[in-house]
Design a protein that fits this description.
Blueprint lengths: L21 E3 L2 E3 L6 E5 L3 E7 L6 E7 L2 E2 L4 H14 L9 E2 L3 E3 L2 E12 L2 E12 L2 E9 L5 H9 L2 E2 L11 E5 L13 E4 L4 E4 L3 E6 L2 E6 L11 H13 L3 E9 L13 E10 L5 E9 L6 E5 L2 H7 L12 H4 L16 E14 L6 E16 L3 E12 L2 E16 L2 E4 L8 E10 L2 E8 L3 E7 L2
Antiparallel strand pairs: 1-2, 2-12, 3-4, 4-5, 5-11, 6-11, 7-9, 8-9, 9-10, 10-11, 13-14, 14-15, 15-16, 16-17, 17-21, 18-19, 19-20, 20-21, 22-23, 22-29, 23-24, 24-25, 25-26, 26-27, 27-28, 28-29
């Protein structure tokens, strides 16, 4: 996703900026090419450039995430104190923005000036908060010639959305009742340590806590023909919600195109007071989708006040705190049994970057890469994995491939694979996501690698 900065100045960078993308725990970015990299374990990754003639410098710190303080304002204040005020003698009052929401993350930015080696410098801090975590990027420079470099770097960030992330939900107890679904998978229920229970059902995952019920729908109705958010939401309401209820009152479909910081990726929201056809009980129902890539989520509470107390007050335009609503998709998460894996699982991915001359603006060509990964899990705890990839620039392609065979040990949320690259052993965090008629297998090896596989046979 694209990221914008409040500190954009009309300056032309004198440095080449595009390099091979790097990954970190919350996503990926394009590091500035030719800058010196430093990695401090369990703390940060930094990139530094110093002009030896003018002594102008710029340094970018990508901080590792920490547990959230509970809100973007508290997270930013803590990061500002820790990373800026405790480190530098700030010479003026900080300029701070109001929080915005992008792709499930709350973002707040600030800048201030300080003196370093008798030269005026600027500190720019951007803090992201969401999914029970927070992290920041700190930029330090003594020359405005680097402002555009900082801008391009921030724009290169591609963060995991709530539907991609497995951060923040730590299952405490896992149980299963395969017979209720006529499913072949061992685990169909997850009890999380925050009180929510997720249960796989034929048309959705039911997530419940007390009297609150949330349905994560598998079905994704086609809404491409609708021009307006409220029209799209109304169509989905009539498709997924209305057939199971009656006697609607206080019906509202949120209409705003321009709210929430992204008019091309808005929040779909509708609500009403309804009567459940199955029970005759009066309830408050909300339908919600977080942007174009989100899943449709249905919230069922005793009344509107109960919904607002548990999740958020939803406003017609800007101001809604969407994090709690968006994070509910992460409860579609089930443990993995070794017997569940037998067979062939496959994933594929691709990406492209177009290069431009920083002086002329002319295209310098396009680089692309694509790959497939296939795992064949055999009974008895062995596996074969086959990787095939191709990358190229301006039509000149390079093909690569690797095949590994070894032992596979599975323990609910963990997988260990032996005989990987150069004979090493790799450990993955794993989980199943329920979909209509099957599962998606998610495998995470820290910030180094992640795979999302579907079963072929």
């Amino acid at each position: 996703m694209k990221r914008s900065s409040i500190f954009l100045l009309l300056a032309i960078s004198t440095l080449p900026l595009i390099a091979q993308r790097e990954t970190f725990e919350q996503g990926s970015y394009a590091p500035p090419k030719g800058w010196q990299q430093e990695v401090k374990k369990n703390t940060y990754t930094s990139y530094t450039y110093i002009n030896k003639k003018t002594k102008a410098y710029c340094r970018l710190y990508i901080m590792l995430s920490i547990e959230t303080k509970g809100s973007i304002d508290k997270d930013f204040a803590n990061e500002w104190q820790t990373l800026v005020l405790n480190q530098y003698k700030i010479a003026d009052t900080a300029q701070v923005t109001d929080p915005i929401t992008e792709n499930g993350w709350l973002i707040k930015k600030g800048k201030a000036h300080f003196t370093f080696n008798n030269v005026k410098s600027t500190a720019m801090l951007t803090t992201w908060s969401g999914h029970n975590r927070t992290f920041s990027i700190l930029a330090l420079t003594n020359s405005n010639e680097y402002f555009s470099s900082i801008q391009i770097f921030l724009e290169s960030l591609e963060l995991k959305s709530p539907t991609d992330s497995n951060v923040g939900i730590q299952p405490a107890i896992v149980s299963g009742n395969a017979a209720t679904l006529n499913t072949k998978f061992a685990f169909t229920t997850t009890n999380s340590n925050d009180g929510w229970q997720a249960t796989e059902q034929p048309d959705w995952v039911k997530v419940s806590k007390g009297n609150t019920i949330v349905l994560i729908h598998y079905t994704q109705p086609d809404i491409r023909s609708f021009n307006n958010l409220d029209e799209s939401t109304a169509f989905v309401w009539n498709t997924l919600v209305a057939p199971r209820y009656s006697n609607a009152s206080n019906l509202w479909m949120r209409r705003s195109f321009w709210a929430d910081g992204d008019f091309m990726n808005g929040k779909y929201f509708g609500e009403a007071d309804l009567t459940e056809n199955a029970t005759g009980k009066r309830v408050h129902v909300v339908i919600y989708k977080n942007g174009n890539s989100g899943k449709w989520i249905e919230f069922i509470t005793a009344d509107k006040t109960a919904f607002q107390n548990e999740f958020s007050i939803v406003y017609p335009e800007d101001g809604t705190q969407w994090d709690k609503l968006s994070a509910m998709v992460n409860y579609n998460k089930f443990a993995v049994s070794a017997n569940d894996l037998s067979g062939n699982w496959k994933s594929s991915s691709g990406a492209g970057i177009e290069y431009y001359n920083v002086y002329t603006g002319n295209s310098m060509g396009m680089a692309s890469a694509s790959s497939t990964t296939e795992f064949i899990f055999q009974p008895g705890g062995t596996y074969t994995s086959i990787y095939k990839g191709v990358d190229g620039f301006n039509g000149s392609n390079r093909y690569v491939g690797e095949t590994y065979k070894g032992k596979c040990v599975v323990s609910n949320w963990e997988m260990t694979l032996t005989n990987r690259f150069k004979g090493t052993t790799e450990n993955f965090s794993i989980q199943f996501e329920a979909v209509k008629g099957g599962r998606i297998l998610h495998m995470y090896r820290g910030s180094i690698e992640e795979l999302h596989l579907f079963k072929m046979k």
